[in-house]
């Protein structure tokens, strides 16, 4: 009888420990789900625990971390608004004297009028591109994400460029479908295609390949322009950077804008020399969200 009593007691204790273990496991799983949702949607649903068990310190640490993230996010948003406003003010202050300078040049009609107007136009484009980049970096534009295919986005971008470079050829292979802002991603591809057209010959060829898994989108864009030197590769996405020995009328901000747009899609872009030219590799998460879920 004693053995039976001891066995029953041990079994009850084991059952209680197992029940406690499963309860704490479920609490940890729920905590992980809440943290993942909060990181995705920016919500605030964690609270401090008043329990005295092994899981409570983890719950309290997670709640404290969430509070700090919210504070830091609010500070970043406030700083972004400040920078965006300051950039807009500077841009406006620069545009006004440039407009006056253009007017005076046109009125004087000097021997260097065309050159003067070209330089003024270049400065205006530079200011517009810089303002666009700074507003992107400061999160000053609202992105509208939706599930859509990438192939039409690239085709539309090429349709806007092909009349300017009629000798260039685009080869588009594969397809991919994901959550993105079609307008901004189209601008990124347009800048990449424009860069390829500028650095290839009259018979330039640009190959774009699309692929994806259930979680990741892959895109590569390669031209046959001969590539760049290894010293230039790490700086292609730097502001105002120009490849040595290449003449370009651009502001040197196009690839920097591309990188920022890809970053806003939680993606990554790298540049490398391929067999015949320069290749850009893009990876982005393929996020498929349920209807009604906050982007």
Written description of the protein model:
By secondary structure, the chain is an alpha+beta fold. The chain has helices at residues 2-41, 56-108, 113-137, 151-161, 182-198, 254-264, and strands at 146-149, 169-174, 177-180, 205-212, 216-223, 268-273, 278-285. It has 2 domains: 1-141, no CATH class; 146-285, Heat Shock Protein 90, CATH 3.30.565.10. The chain is built from 6 helices and 7 strands. It has a 5-stranded mixed sheet, covered by helices on one side. It has a two-stranded antiparallel ribbon with strand order 1-3. The longest helix is centred in the N-terminal third of the chain and has 53 residues, at 56-108. It is elongated. The termini are far apart.
Provide a brief overview of the structure:
With about 300 residues, this protein is α+β, with helices and mostly antiparallel strands. Helices cover about 55% and strands about 15% of the residues. The protein contains 6 helices and 7 strands.
């Amino acid at each position: 009888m004693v053995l039976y009593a001891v066995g029953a007691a041990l079994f009850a204790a084991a059952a209680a420990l197992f029940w406690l273990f499963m309860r704490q496991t479920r609490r940890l799983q729920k905590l992980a789900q809440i943290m993942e949702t909060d990181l995705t949607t920016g919500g605030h649903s964690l609270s401090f625990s008043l329990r005295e068990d092994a899981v409570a310190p983890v719950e309290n640490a997670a709640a404290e971390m969430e509070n700090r993230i919210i504070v830091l996010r609010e500070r970043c948003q406030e700083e972004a608004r400040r920078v965006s406003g300051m950039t807009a003010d500077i841009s406006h202050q620069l545009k006004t004297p440039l407009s006056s300078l253009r007017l005076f040049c046109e009125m004087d009609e000097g021997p260097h009028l065309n050159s003067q107007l070209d330089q003024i136009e270049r400065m205006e484009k530079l200011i517009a591109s810089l303002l666009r980049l700074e507003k992107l970096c400061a999160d000053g534009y609202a992105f509208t994400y939706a599930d859509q295919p990438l192939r039409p986005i690239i085709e539309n971008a090429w349709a806007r460029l092909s009349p300017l470079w009629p000798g260039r050829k685009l080869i588009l292979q594969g397809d991919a479908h994901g959550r993105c802002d079609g307008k901004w991603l189209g601008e990124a591809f347009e800048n990449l295609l424009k860069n390829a057209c500028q650095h290839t010959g009259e018979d330039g060829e640009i190959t774009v390949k699309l692929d994806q898994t259930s979680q990741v989108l892959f895109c590569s864009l390669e031209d046959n322009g001969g590539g760049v030197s290894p010293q230039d590769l790490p700086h292609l996405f730097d502001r105002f950077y120009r490849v040595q020995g290449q003449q370009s009328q651009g502001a040197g901000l196009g690839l920097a804008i591309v990188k920022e747009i890809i970053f806003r899609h939680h993606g990554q872009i790298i540049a490398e020399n391929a067999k015949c030219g320069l290749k850009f590799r893009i990876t982005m998460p393929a996020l498929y969200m349920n209807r009604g879920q906050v982007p």
